[in-house]
Design goal:
With about 250 residues, this protein is an alpha/beta fold. It has a single domain (about 40-240), classed as NagB/RpiA/CoA transferase-like (Rossmann fold, 3-Layer(aba) Sandwich), CATH 3.40.50.10420. The protein is about 35% helix and about 20% strand. It is built from 9 helices and 12 strands. It has helices spanning about 5-15, 20-35, 45-60, 70-80, 95-100, 120-125, 155-160, 175-180, 225-230; strands spanning about 60-65, 85-90, 110, 130-135, 135-140, 145, 160-170, 170-175, 195, 200-205, 210, 220-225. Helix 4 packs across helix 5. This is L-lactate dehydrogenase complex protein LldG. Pfam families: LUD_dom. It comes from Burkholderia pyrrocinia.
């Protein structure tokens, strides 16, 4: 037995015994706690979209709702109005391809298809915005959950001064516990999830707040709603959440 194995064996033997059912019982207590504090309406995508937008607005982010047919043209127009000229996105994603088709000639879609060392200066100096598609959203905290991959690495949501995230209303959760439970994180925790709850902000010892010191100074979130679901609930799709001024 190696010294390492001997040390680990001693630690294991000294560890207090835990009943086999303790973890399951604790999980059940946690689930009950969160389930009982949630109102039934907090499972409704309409209510979750409104809560997400309100929480994002409180964090100085812009968020608005749009249908699947409307959002590409709406977002393309907003990007052009904001002076965006080069937009970082993953053309392999359906949402990115839809946005690229809607962009005016003045806004160029740029893929992240090179090692960062090959174009670091260009990336930092010429990219105006990055576009990502969120895995899901957390309404209570105004959070979009990103799962970076090769086509949309963390750099896309970190380096450009404007981060634009698209989240589908049917992927929204009431809180972090609901997200972890519904997405079964316990069955295989993702290796890299990024939780974005507003633009980058920090403050100094005098509590002077500054935006953009450690990431994007602006965050836009497009919440894609389902008109069919709104019609079934007898409410106009536009009421899912209020639009924000440009």
């Amino acid at each position: 037995m190696s010294a390492r194995d001997a040390i680990l064996a001693r630690l294991r033997s000294a560890a207090p015994g835990v009943a086999a059912t303790a973890a399951a019982a604790l999980d059940a207590r946690i689930d009950t706690h969160y389930d009982t504090r949630r109102a039934p309406a907090e499972r409704d995508p309409h209510t979750l979209a409104q809560a997400l937008q309100a929480a994002l607005a409180a964090s100085h982010a812009q968020a608005w709702c749009a249908t699947d047919d409307e959002w590409p043209a709406q977002l393309a127009a907003r990007l052009a109005d904001a002076g965006v000229r080069r937009l970082l996105l993953d053309p392999a994603r359906a949402e990115s391809a839809a946005l690229a088709r809607a962009l005016p000639d003045a806004v160029a879609p740029v893929p992240f298809d090179r090692p960062i060392d090959a174009w670091k200066t260009e990336l930092f100096d010429t990219i105006d915005a990055g576009f990502t598609v969120a895995r899901s959203g957390i309404a209570a905290t105004g959070t979009v959950v990103l799962a970076p991959d090769a086509g949309t690495p963390r750099t896309v949501s970190l380096v450009p001064p404007l981060h634009v995230a698209l989240v589908h209303a049917n992927t929204l959760h009431a809180d972090l516990h609901a997200a972890a439970h519904a997405e079964r994180w316990h069955a295989g925790m993702p290796t890299n999830l990024v939780l974005v709850s507003g633009p980058s902000k920090t403050s100094d010892i005098q509590q002077t707040l500054a935006y953009g010191a450690h990431g994007p100074r602006r965050l836009w979130v497009v919440i894609v709603t389902d008109p069919a679901a709104d019609a079934a609930a007898a409410r106009p799709a536009a009421t899912a959440c209020e639009d924000q001024p440009r």
